[in-house]
Fold:
Amino acid sequence: MSEETARHAGGCLCGAVRYAASGAPKWIANCHCASCRRALGAPLTTYAGFPAERLAWTTGEPVRFHSSPGVTRSFCGRCGTSLAYEGERWPGEIHVLVGSLDHPEDFPPQGDAFAEEKLPWLHLGAAPS
Structure:
C-alpha cells in the first residue's frame, strides 16, 4: 500500500468511537501548550495533522467541546479518551492524537510546537546517558 492510499485507524480506550484517516499526515508534532496540557492531563501530546476530508468517524461519534475561541476538541463521551483537535488557525485540518492511533509507533514527531511553553523539567531530545 502506498503512503497516498494508506489507511490509519484509531480510536478510544473503550472502543465506542473509532476513526480512520487516509494518506500521509501533513505533519506530526509534539505540542507543549498549556491548553493541551490542561485538556489532556499530560506534559505534552503528539498530533498528526490530516486534511479534514481524509478523516472519517467509523464507529460512533465523538463529543465535541469548544475549549477556547476557535478551538474544538473531540473525545469519547463514554471513556473520555481525547481523539482530535480542530482550530480556526488551521482551517480544513483535523489533528488526531497520535496516542489514539492503533499504530502510534508509525508516527514519530518531526518537531515541537509551542516549545517555549514546555515544562522546565521536560528535556527534549535524546535521553541522557
User: Anything to note?
Assistant: The beta strands are 7-11, 18-22, 27-31, 45-51, 55-59, 63-68, 71-75, 82-87, 93-97, 112-113. Residues 34-40 form the longest helix (7 residues). The mean pLDDT is 92. The helical segments are 34-40.
